[in-house]
Design brief:
Helices cover about 35% and strands about 20% of the residues. It is α/β, with parallel strands linked by helices.
Length: about 220
């Protein structure tokens, strides 16, 4: 085990999971901001964008990019949406720092994107008190969350949705297991149970989303 692997192992042993994951992501951003969020920078950014366009995302819609990272998809949404309509949040301070630099570099500052660090590192959405979004996207977020973190998201996501809102999220489908310190798989039944508990309905959109590593896409709406 090399020095970096030892450092990462220590992070997960000595910290709360989301704090460890935040610091681990910071290290990955330092090494390579584009591969830190899963690589396939252009391919995945375009895939996310085209999917939401098919799902009728319009420039006037207000969008939250949950776990926006270094703006792999966010940069495309910022260009497309009306000024002030893109919100991105991440638990990694260095992803947001890089995202802000990218916005300036690509001449997108005038589009007024809102880029926030989740200081509490939770999914209670207190940063958006009194706000609601037309579209919420969580690309490659639940693949890095523990069951209790996803449950917290389902418990609170309704606070920032209205009756016509769409929440899209990806996951890797298998029996529940943790493949590494930061990679998780879930059966669809896990999300069905949470949706029933918190008053949502789910629709599998995976046939419309050709993810290169076979993550599946789900639509969540109020029941």
């Amino acid at each position: 085990m090399d020095q970096l692997d030892q450092q990462v192992k220590k992070l997960y042993e000595e910290n709360d999971y989301l704090e460890a994951y935040s610091q681990h992501t910071d290290l990955r951003v330092e090494a390579n901001p584009k591969s830190a969020v899963g690589g396939l920078w252009e391919e995945m950014g375009q895939l996310q964008f085209e999917f939401l366009i098919v799902k009728n995302l319009q420039p006037h819609h207000k969008m939250l990019d949950l776990g926006c990272g270094t703006l792999r998809g966010g940069r495309k949404f910022i260009k497309y949406l009306d000024t002030g309509n893109y919100y991105g949040i991440d638990i990694s301070p260095k992803t947001i720092a890089y995202a802000k630099q990218l916005v300036q570099k690509e001449g997108l500052s005038e589009k007024g994107p809102h880029l926030l660090v989740s200081e509490k590192k939770d999914l209670k959405f207190r940063e958006f008190s009194g706000e609601s979004f037309d579209y919420i996207l969580a690309q490659s977020v639940f693949t890095h969350l523990k069951p209790e973190n996803i449950k917290e998201c389902f418990e609170n996501i309704g606070h920032i949705m209205h009756k016509s809102s769409f929440f899209y999220f990806t996951y890797k489908e298998e029996e529940y297991r943790q493949n590494s310190p930061k990679n998780f798989c879930y059966p669809f039944s896990f999300f069905e149970s949470l949706a029933k508990q918190y008053g949502f309905k789910l629709q599998d959109c995976s046939k419309e989303y050709n993810h290169p590593t076979r993550q599946l896409m789900v639509e969540l709406r109020e029941r």
